[in-house]
Amino acid sequence: MTLEKADVESILARVKVSEGETLGSADMIRALVVEGGAVRFVIEAPTPERAKQMEAVRADAEAAVRAIPGVTSVSVALTAHGPSKPAPSLKMGGHMQPQAGPMKPEGVKAIIAIGSGKGGVGKSTVSSNLAVALARAGKKVGLLDADIHGPSQPRMFGITKRPASPDGKTIEPLHAHGVTLMSVGAMLPEEKAVIWRGPMLMGALQQMLMQVAWGPLDVLLIDLPPGTGDVQLTLGQKSQLAGAIVVSTPQDVALLDAKKALDAFATLKVPVLGLIENMAVFTCPHCGKDSHIFGHGGVAAEAERLSLPLLAQLPIDLDTRVSGDAGTPVALGDGLMAEAYAKLADRFIRGGLV
Ligand SMILES: Nc1ncnc2c1ncn2[C@@H]1O[C@H](COP(=O)(O)OP(=O)(O)OP(=O)(O)O)[C@@H](O)[C@H]1O
């Protein structure tokens, strides 16, 4: 019998939260994914305080789903959103304000940028999963989605809320899956393309770094736009970056662009901490045969040529794509990809970078 999402939904909806209130009636289930026998979902409490009291509900929900015939694994994340807030009255963009010293938010120990030469190679996917894996390893992690032209982190973290700016000066960041998050995408309607360039963009970036109440962080990851444009230039010149990571697929054209990104970081004197090869191999779920859809070995060879570490080789993985789209990064779970990201996070921690 195939496991149907609707069946799981209706069982979850009946799990009791408090007297007269269920997960269904309180509308707390988010990002439910059913794949074969694997079930993943998020319980979203209305406030962080409420979430702290809901561990028993989380356990009940997990047990209820596990008891459904055909279920082989269950992964539940308990998160909270703050009280709903009005849209920020903050004006975004504009010329940078004079600033003493490089841009580095107070209380943030290190800033690491994640870039790519070409779009669509999985830079945002890697950023979100690395952030989640570092948070799972006990680090205080922030993620700034600086991909102004195609912000995707709100979707990858399942966030639809907008950040608040009660005083019109500081911006309160969002929180999901243990990560403190800020994105220009969260400040604008999703379908609105941002066509900022030059000064507007620099002003917006300065606001994102310096006006967001990031709080104390071990690391702030910055998901850069692809290529080598204004954002890279501003960040490289004006902020204090501990280093950058470059994500590429093994495909020649992506690699060529990755080389340009590496050159740009070298010019800006931003140390490159290593390369990540994404979509390295596809293992057929039916016959187990490996296919190198985007080529083979190119990123490893480039890393060797430049004497840079190859930090990870991540396969093409359906779960990674589906989880990203569902707002629950695959690193939250307990499969092979979650392990791969945990290993990547561990490399950063052992290397003393985070
Ligand atoms: N290892 C992977 N296996 C399968 N799908 C992946 C993998 N990495 C990324 N994807 C998928 O590829 C698509 C592009 O990924 P993503 O948005 O992370 O790329 P990007 O480099 O940040 O793109 P952009 O430049 O547009 O921001 C997404 O649908 C994502 O889910």
From TrEMBL:
| One Pfam family recorded for the sequence | FeS_assembly_P
Q: State the UniProt keywords alphabetically.
A: ATP-binding, Hydrolase, Iron, Iron-sulfur, Metal-binding, Nucleotide-binding
| Superkingdom, natural source | Bacteria
Residues the entry annotates as binding ATP: 117-124
Question: What's one GO MF term for it?
Answer: ATP hydrolysis activity
The MIP18 family-like domain covers which part of the protein?
5-76
What CDD domains does the annotation carry?
Mrp_NBP35 (cd02037)
Q: One of this protein's GO BP terms? A: iron-sulfur cluster assembly
Q: Does the keyword Calcium apply?
A: no
Q: Which family does it belong to?
A: Belongs to the Mrp/NBP35 ATP-binding proteins family.
Subunit composition?
Homodimer.
Describe the task this protein carries out.
Answer: Binds and transfers iron-sulfur (Fe-S) clusters to target apoproteins. Can hydrolyze ATP.
Q: What name does UniProt use for this protein?
A: Iron-sulfur cluster carrier protein
